[in-house]
Design brief:
Strand order of the largest sheet of chain B: 3-2-1-4-5-6
Number of helices of chain B: 8
Helix content of chain A: 10-25%
Oligomer: heterodimer
Radius of gyration of chain A: 24 Å
Number of strands of chain B: 16
Shape of chain A: globular
Helix content of chain B: 10-25%
Largest sheet of chain A: 6 strands, antiparallel
Distance between the termini of chain A: 60 Å
Shape of chain B: globular
Largest interface: A-B, 82 and 73 residues
Strand order of the largest sheet of chain A: 3-2-1-4-5-6
Distance between the termini of chain B: 60 Å
Number of strands of chain A: 22
Strand content of chain B: 35-45%
Strand content of chain A: 35-45%
Order of helices and strands of chain B: EEEHHEEEHEHHEEEHEHEEEHEE
Largest sheet of chain B: 6 strands, antiparallel
Structural class of chain A: alpha+beta
């Protein structure tokens, strides 16, 4: 939602001349750029447990972060009060980085300045129901309906824990270039964990949905979809076992398998790692890094997506960035610092957890475009023997080496081109550049996953991911070593 | 305010947290930041209903409105009589000044920005101390003062003030083939004078250099030695499974195991979280309940679950604690074992020095983790390995325990020494 400038000035109790004065104060000691990031966030949460919606709460977080850049060096401070004396002290603390020895004004081309006024008509997350004013009790029947639907579908259901969290943030940004941006960001997240018991076996499923929406997020259809997902494939989960581990072909199912892109490639494309020479892709710009025909994108323009942004947290417009086009590495993900260093335009990836953190290059919605290698069944048949995976919990990457892992909650063995034994609780490990180069097929079924993905690079930031079904020649799959 | 607004009971946790940080990149100052947080958390108990709220808008008028709304919100929820304040005889009564644990270093107040920058720069390598090329060196010096106060409507008053000083360094090196390897090291102390920052960067460089040439190798079933820096990976799932909320939700592989011998004789874990002057210790938990030394697992027998007031009421049992503060795994089969002793004891296998992702299923204890480390032969490190996985079940893993060292790092929150297990599945 984008309201008028006056609303945001009033929320934070500041005026334009005061903002100008504060950026000047921040640069008093030197430095070539300063920005202010005001935030007023209201978080709410409510929990269903043991069939009772018996806990909930609300959390307010308010303040302003002030950053001074001196070349690539950063000075940062914040204040939880937005009265002018407090902000002046924070500005002075951030300005300490300059140390009186700052270089002069860095040349930023006119194309890389963003004076445009926020446009409500181009808003990527307009919302009608404001979580800040909606009584928490409105969500009670919604959570109860999810539990009822799960229990109606599955007699093996033992426990349901359903949580709904939401936030609404008023944001105001101003910088020493004179750019002023403001907006209101909603975020709603639903997570449901269900414990099923059959004999002496226990199986847990976790499903979730997260979108930048107001209270209109809560629909009967969402409750029904989540309940259906919670019980999906349950018989297979009870039968699932560990496969024999080792190197094998892996078919990544469409949607949540996008974690592969996030971990194996996305982080290594973040320009701060490349600026420091640490990334395995640091010297690969303009080079073929995966088979022709593959396009990998980081996108802040998908309406209501968890990674969507009208502006990033430096006031740069949200945009769609092709990182890989036709198999060639074409762009890193930039904030203003790395963009200046590389002499390119920022890509709108300067993001932060809150006013407590300075922005750094972060992903938004990272996905691969659909390919032309048929359907997921075609890829499974082409794999011959291997593993099919489509449900994940977490992943990690080592930037320098490019080694990544992701944890598979469930999937199936592939034997003779067909899905056979269900598998669960296995880790898959690989190397980013090698895995990219080893893509053998991409189906035409791109799906963006709207789960509650959170990236934890130094700070927690909401992201999303997606991918069409993909066949990778060889990855290492965790499992037993049968004697 | 909460009682005035209609709550019957309330607890307030007040936190003041100030941190200063100086980062370096390649021995140059890269970032300076100054953080000061003050927040209030309020637990509201009204008509047998419960809610948790927090705000950093501390002006009286704003706070009054926030708390009044909080109480109204709580009244909209369903009753849950299991939510309550802890019994008074469990609450800490000897944490009044905040200084009882002797974790406050007054030196903190004398450190200025100049000294922080000097310390951060002095800790840098600047250039490679060995033959292998240094690609980047990122250092971070930080100091922090943390003050927490808990009061509740039944008279609880607990306070703790502590300082913490830390230096962290991550190094990336490049071998002659252009392959990059990174590693980190860190040190922490509640006292500035005791912060051993001088060796941190060199340790990180040496760790990264030791990994050069690392490769993925053939899967095998063999001995596994886990370095003390990362050994908590195989203890944390056990502590998680002992948590009351997991037990009560049937989401624990240790459900129904209280008082039962599940693990081998070699596993004894004691929570020693209230020791004066030691890092990560605290006199009370988030409910204000007094922390005390207690045995969690005694020679393989599960002695207790972690039951806070809510979990204990849910399960109809006596409360114990919210969770372990500073669990310590005791040495076995003899005291004073070092990593070298354990490698010698095991002769052949894989030494794990780093984990890369993975997870444990709390309901079953099944785990799978990415690892890197070294193959060792005849009790000595032979060559580095990476891109491998270790897979198994926590209870089965511990049934194959060979040894627990006596070398845990005192600055870590869990005092877990070097560990060794037999018959472990590695995939490569």
């Amino acid at each position: 939602m984008i309201l008028n400038k006056e609303y945001y000035m009033e929320v934070f109790g500041v005026s334009l001349p005061q903002l100008e004065e504060l950026t000047a104060r921040a640069l008093k000691n030197g430095g070539n750029y300063a920005d202010l990031y005001f935030e007023d966030t209201c978080y709410s949460d409510i929990l269903l447990r043991d069939s009772v919606v018996g806990a909930g709460g609300q959390h307010l977080d308010y303040g302003c972060g002030i950053r001074v850049l001196c070349g690539e060096k950063t000075g940062y401070a914040y204040s939880e009060s937005t009265d002018i004396p407090s902000l002046s002290r924070a500005a002075a603390a951030a300005g300490i980085i300059a140390d009186g020895t700052a270089p002069g004004e860095v040349a930023v081309s006119a194309a890389n300045r963003y004076f445009g006024k926020p446009n409500p008509k181009a808003d990527r997350y307009p919302f009608t129901g404001d979580w800040r004013t909606a009584p928490l009790s409105e969500a009670v029947p919604f959570l109860e309906s999810i539990e009822s639907a799960i229990r109606a579908k599955e007699s093996r259901c033992s426990k349901v824990i359903a949580s709904l969290s939401s936030s609404v943030s008023d944001i105001l940004m101003y910088n020493s270039y004179g750019e002023l941006k403001y907006e209101t960001r909603p975020l709603a997240s639903l997570s449901v964990t269900t414990i099923f018991i059959q004999g002496d076996k226990t199986v847990q499923t976790s499903v979730g949905r997260s979108l930048r929406m107001g209270t209109e997020f809560l629909t009967p259809q969402l409750a029904a979809d989540i309940a259906a997902e919670a019980v999906k494939g349950l018989d297979a989960l009870f039968d699932a076992r560990r496969p024999k581990g080792g190197k094998m072909s892996v078919v990544m199912g469409a949607g949540a398998s996008g974690i592969l892109l996030h971990e194996a490639m996305g982080h290594a494309f973040e320009a701060d790692f490349n600026r420091k020479g640490q990334s395995v892709f640091a010297d690969k710009m303009g080079k073929q890094i995966c088979p022709k025909g593959i396009n990998i994108i980081d996108d802040g323009t998908i309406p209501a997506n968890r990674g969507a942004c009208n502006f990033d947290d430096e006031g740069v417009p949200g945009q769609k960035t092709y990182m890989v086009e036709d198999g060639v590495l074409t762009s890193f993900l930039h904030d203003r610092v790395s963009a200046n260093w590389y002499g390119v335009a920022p890509t709108g990836n300067g993001r932060r957890e809150s006013f407590r953190y300075n922005p750094i290059p972060r992903m938004r919605a990272t996905y691969m475009e659909s390919g032309r290698d048929g359907t997921v069944q075609d890829l499974i048949a082409a794999a011959g023997n291997g593993i099919f995976v489509d449900s994940f919990s977490n992943g990690e990457v080592k930037i320098g080496e490019g080694d990544f892992t992701f944890y598979v909650k469930s999937g199936f063995l592939i034997e003779n081109g067909r899905l056979t034994m269900p598998v669960k609780d296995i880790n898959i490990v690989g190397n980013g550049p090698k895995a990219l180069a080893d893509i053998k097929g991409v189906a035409g079924d791109l799906k963006i996953d709207d789960g509650t993905w959170t990236c934890g690079k130094e700070q927690s930031v909401a992201v999303s991911c997606g991918i069409p079904s993909v066949l990778i020649g060889k990855l290492t799959v965790g499992g037993e070593q049968y004697d | 305010m909460a009682l005035k607004a209609g709550a019957q009971k309330a607890r307030v946790n007040l936190v003041l947290d100030r941190m200063n940080l100086v980062s370096t990149l390649d021995a140059q100052i890269d970032k300076c930041s100054s953080c000061f947080d003050r927040s209030i958390r309020i637990s509201v108990f009204a008509d047998e209903k419960f809610g948790a709220f927090s705000t950093n808008k501390l002006e009286k008028k704003s706070l009054e409105a926030f708390i009044a709304k909080a109480v109204d919100t709580v009244k909209m929820l369903a009753p849950d009589p299991c939510r309550d304040l802890p019994a008074q005889d469990r609450v800490q009564k000897d944490a009044v000044t905040g200084r009882e644990l002797d974790l406050l270093d007054e030196t903190y107040y004398t450190i200025d920005g100049k000294q922080r920058k000097e310390t951060a720069l002095a800790a840098c390598l600047g250039k490679a101390p060995g033959k292998i090329k240094l690609v980047s060196e990122e250092g971070e010096y930080s100091d922090n003062i943390y003050d927490t106060l808990i009061v509740d409507s039944q008279g609880t008053f607990c306070r703790q003030t502590e300082t913490s000083f830390e230096y962290f360094c991550e190094v990336t090196v490049e071998d002659e083939n252009g392959e990059k390897y990174s590693a980190y090291d860190w040190a922490e102390s509640p006292r500035f004078a005791n912060l051993p920052w001088k060796e941190v960067s060199r340790n990180a460089y040496e760790k990264a250099c030791a990994m050069t040439g690392a490769r993925n190798c053939r899967g095998r079933r063999c001995n596994m030695v886990v370095d003390r820096e990362v050994a908590s990976k195989f203890v944390s799932p056990i502590l998680m499974a002992l948590r009351g909320d997991n037990i009560q939700q049937h989401n624990s592989f240790l459900e129904g195991k209280e008082g039962i011998k599940v693990f081998p004789d070699g596993m004894t874990i004691v929570d020693c979280g209230a020791r004066k002057g030691e890092s990560n210790c605290i006199l009370f938990d988030d409910e204000g309940v007094a922390a005390k030394e207690h045995v969690i697992i005694d020679r393989g027998t599960v002695k207790e679950y972690f039951l806070n007031t809510f979990s204990a009421n849910k399960m109809g049992k006596e409360p114990t604690c919210d969770g372990p503060v500073r669990p310590r795994l005791m040495g076995w089969p003899r005291a004073a074992l070092t990593r070298d002793d354990i490698l010698e004891m095991c002769k052949e296998g894989i030494l794990v020095t780093e984990f890369n992702g993975g997870n444990t299923n709390t309901a079953t204890g099944d785990f799978s983790f990415g690892i890197e480390g070294f193959v060792f032969k005849k009790g000595k490190i032979a060559y580095p390995v990476k891109e491998m996985l270790v897979t198994g079940n926590i209870v089965e893993l511990w049934s194959n325990l060979i040894a627990c060292g006596d070398d845990s790092r005192s600055c870590m929150s869990k005092l877990i020494p070097t560990l060794a297990f037999s018959n472990v599945d590695f995939n490569g």
